[in-house]
Amino acid sequence: RAGKDGDFLLEPAPSSVTNNDLVDGQIVYSFIPKHNGRPPRGNFQIAAAPGLLRLLGYYTAEGCPTGRYGSHFSFNIKETGYHEDVINLLRGVFGDIPIRISVSPNTDNAVDIMVSSVVVSQFFTESVGSGARNKRLPQWIFRCSPALIAEFLTGYWRGDGSRSVRGFHITTASAGLAEDVRRLLLHLGIVAAVGY
Q: Which residue stretches of 95-165 are H helix?
């Protein structure tokens, strides 16, 4: 039945994560080269840290894979602070990897940050999936401390967030991702609704 004025909706609180269960500082991804040739550049083990979580938020909002060995982020050309943040985070998390910045060929007001790294591409694809409608959050993110969750939400908000007189909104094409973000907000004590 549909709700009526005066009805209450109860939301179970997420089980609290003890310090022993937190993944903060732990390796959440290990890249294993699949051939005996020259190994790709960059860090092969990625730990749950503030920079990684903010970068994951940016990618969840503005990133997608490009082929088997690349990833890219798209931003408005005026969001120069976000461009610089993503580039610094990529280098801080993944090390010495090829990064190229270009104005999008499809429009003159978008900037693409292109990364040519199988390590980066596989990390993001395995963590959040590919295709706007298919993105989900990795299960390990629900075992992060509130400080790391806030870093993820900062990056994600900068890409897909907005504010209106009715409150704060995040827009996504993925129903699963919307539910994941709602659950993540509950870990911070924030009750959010998902609208379709």
A: 118-128, 146-160
Q: Which amino acid, 192?
A: A
Query: Phi and psi (nearest 5°) for 174?
Result: -100, 115
pTM, full prediction: 0.86
- DSSP labels for 90-112? HHHHH-S--EEEEE-TT-SSEEE
CB atoms within 10 A of CB 27: 11
The number of angstroms, rounded, from the C-alpha of 96 to the middle of its chain's C-alpha atoms is: 21
Give the 3-state secondary structure of residue 73.
Answer: strand
Name the residue among 146, 157, 145, 140 with its Cα closest to residue 60: 157
- Per-residue buried b or exposed e for 68-100, using 16+ beta carbons within 10 Å of the residue's own CB: eebbbbbbeeebeebbebbeebbeebbeebebe
Q: pLDDT digit of tens for each residue in the chain (196 aa)?
A: 566 777 666 566 566 655 667 888 888 888 877 766 666 777 788 989 999 999 999 999 999 998 878 899 999 999 999 999 999 999 999 998 889 888 877 777 889 999 998 889 999 999 999 888 999 999 999 999 999 999 999 999 998 877 888 778 778 889 999 999 999 998 888 888 777 6
Q: Six-digit token pair at 114? A: 């292109």
Report how far residue 11's alpha carbon sits from residue 6's, in angstroms, rounded to the nearest whole number: 16
Residue with the two structure tokens 């920079």: 51
